[in-house]
Structures are given as C-alpha cells and as structure tokens.
Amino acid sequence: xxxxxxxxxxxxxxxxxxxxxxxxxxxxxxxxxxxxxxxxxxxxxxxxxxxxxxxxxxxxxxxxxxxxxxxxxxxxxxxxxxxxxxxxxxxxxxxxxxxxxxxxxxxxxxxxxxxxxxxxxxxxxxxxxxxxxxxxxxxxxxxxxxxxxxxxxxxxxxxxxxxxxxxxxxxxxxxxxxxxxxxxxxxxxxxxxxxxxxxxxxxxxxxxxxxxxxxxxxxxxxxxxxxxxxxxxxxxxxxxxxxxxxxxxxxxxxxxxxxxxxxxxxxxxxxxxxxxxxxxxxxxxxxxxxxxxxxxxxxxxxxxxxxxxxxxxxxxxxxxxxxxxxxxxxxxxxxxxxxxxxxxxxxxxxxxxxxxxxxxxxxxxxxxxxxxxxxxxxxxxxxxxxxxxxxxxxxxxxxxxxxx
Length: 404
Ligand SMILES: *Cc1c(COP(=O)(O)O)cnc(C)c1O
Prior knowledge:
The chain has helices at 2-6, 43-46, 55-67, 78-90, 102-119, 140-146, 149-152, 170-176, 200-213, 283-296, 301-322, 345-354, 377-403, and strands at 22-26, 29-32, 37-40, 95-99, 127-131, 162-165, 181-186, 189-190, 196-197, 216-220, 244-247, 258-262, 327-333, 336-341, 357-358, 360-362, 366-369. By secondary structure, the protein is of the alpha/beta class. A hairpin with a 2-residue loop joins strand 13 (327-333) and strand 14.
C-alpha cells in the first residue's frame, strides 16, 4: 500500500496500527506527539487499570528502580512474597506463580492441571475443555485452547489436548468429558470474544461438573480480573471458586505482569524445577503489582467502579435509543462493556477515534469500552458526547451513501 511504502517500518507487520503515537498520558487522557488529546476508553486493552501516570504507581516504580530491578528467581523476592500473600488473602488461592503476560499465566495453568493428574497417577488425563469464542493467548498451547481457526492457520498442527464446545451448550460440554479430561477452562466474561458473560448458574454448573468428575476448574480472569468487572474477580458474583485462576492485564497497571493462582491441592505437582521463568516476578513488577492492589483493594474502590459502571451503562442505553440504526445492543459488567453495532465494529471504532475517543474492537461485531477504573462521571459524560457525535457521523455517511 502507498502509505506503507511512504513510512517503511522496521517492525514486523503483524499489527494493523493506527497512525497515532502518544508521548504522554494522564489519567484517562493520552496526548499525541502533535499535541492532540484523546480520551482513552481502551486503557491499553484493559491494562491501564488506574489510567496513565497514576502518582502512586509512578512512585512505586521509581522507588523500586533506585533499589534493585531484577535478581532472578534463584533468590527470595520479598516484594513478590508480599504480593502473593495479598492475592492469597483476597481470593480462593493458596499459592501464586508470577510471570510476564496472560499467555504465560495460561501456559502455567495448563501445565499445572496436567501435572496435577500426573502426580495423582493419571497421566492420561491431560485434555482440557474450552469454549467457542474463547481467547487464551497467542502461544502454541493457548492458541489451541482458544481454538480460533483464523489464529491457528499456517502455524502447523494444532497443539494436542484441547476440546472445544459451543458457547452456552451445557449438554455438549457434558458429552465432551472423557476419562482423559483434566480440566475445564473458561473466561467468566469472554473479552476478545465480544463481551459475552457466562451466567452465574453456568459457572456454578461448571464447578459441580468438575467436582463430580475430579476435574480442575480454571478461570481465565486475565481481562476480567482486578476490579474490571466491578468485583475484585468476576467469578465472585457466582459464589463459586476455581482451582486455578490466571490474571494479567490490569494487575500490572501497564507494567508487564501475569499471575497463575491456585489452591495448594491443584498446585501440588509444581515442585522445584518443574516450571520457571527468568523475568517473572522481578522486583520492579512486584513493586507495581503491590501499588495497584494498594488502590484497588482500598475501602470503597470497587463499589465506586460498580457505581460508575451503572452511569456508563445508562448513558450507553440512551445512546442506543438515540441511534438505533447504529447500535444494536449493550452488554458486559463493571467497566468491561461492549456495544454491538449495526455497522462494522471497526468502522464504529474509527468514527469514535475521529472524535478523539479510543475504543477496542472485539469479536461478534462488538466494540469494547474499557476505561480506567478511576474514570469520573464528568469523563463518562465527555465520552457520551463523543460517542453521540460519532454515531451522528456514521448516520450522515449512511444517508450520503444511500443517496449516491
Ligand atoms: C489478553 C488475554 C490473554 C492473553 O494475554 P497476553 O498478555 O496478550 O498474552 C489471555 N486470556 C484473556 C482472557 C485475555 O483477555
């Protein structure tokens, strides 16, 4: 394409990037190198949970940077022991493994589930049931777990050991269980798949099935966790807990950080030498993770997320009423909200970007709104105005198109 040849890039062309670059951020705002201001309702794909340049996070990172950055996991890392203890205290888990990304946390979860059955004397139990529309990452195993053909294409044989069932089909799920099944792995709300919530009774049903069949239940809360859904973790609303849970994105507030949490029982096979990571859980990452929890676990923080979520949902419902030819449906929980559009979702996201509002497309023709959890009512009102103008722009273009 002409534009590409004008701006040859040394980067691998595996991302379709918008021609925008930001040099500074503050709360929910991003500033381009041309001095333009964008309202960031994408938050680096649910990563910048506390917005940009949050003073507490900046200080935690800078303070730690003066002390020690990295020591490897050959030694104890007190900041990591502290963060693990806080996660254990606030969840079902007894133990935590730190790594650098979501996919890496899921790899740990998959290995842990297989190892659990192996040390129980059932090494033949290595298969994991996943759900259609899932997204678990881009490594070879997590791609196989996600099962999306478009991502698997051309990368050789799909990794063995994953059985996918249609979304919401409890009977198909039951039928997929065999003596080789080790675990069921689901996102309580599918993020990339189009902001599709698994109903609480289904999460409870999965727990029951796992208990009946001696399988482990794995929740992928990489996108839904750390307050994004309005709860600390999205599965809390169902009143059941998993055996293993993966967390990334928001937990680092922008610093690469992933965690695989587990009960002592589920993690019992992962003894010294069975798994590892060079960078995972280093002091810099641990300092930032602790700082994120300082804010998210503060009294009243999650209640505030729930309140602002209601405000945003009401505004989106109003937007749907005002622009029924553009917006079909509003979905999601907390500040993981989706708008299903009647025009191609990427067109909708582009129209919003023209109004200097950043959104993130997802599957099922949905556009995600993932603002920082610290968003205010005034900023929600600002986003509404921009969305309203974007919808009007799309309607106007439709009319012109129809007339032409
Ligand atoms: C983003 C995401 C992943 C992958 O995380 P990476 O850090 O990109 O490897 C896995 N599962 C879910 C649910 C995600 O949203």
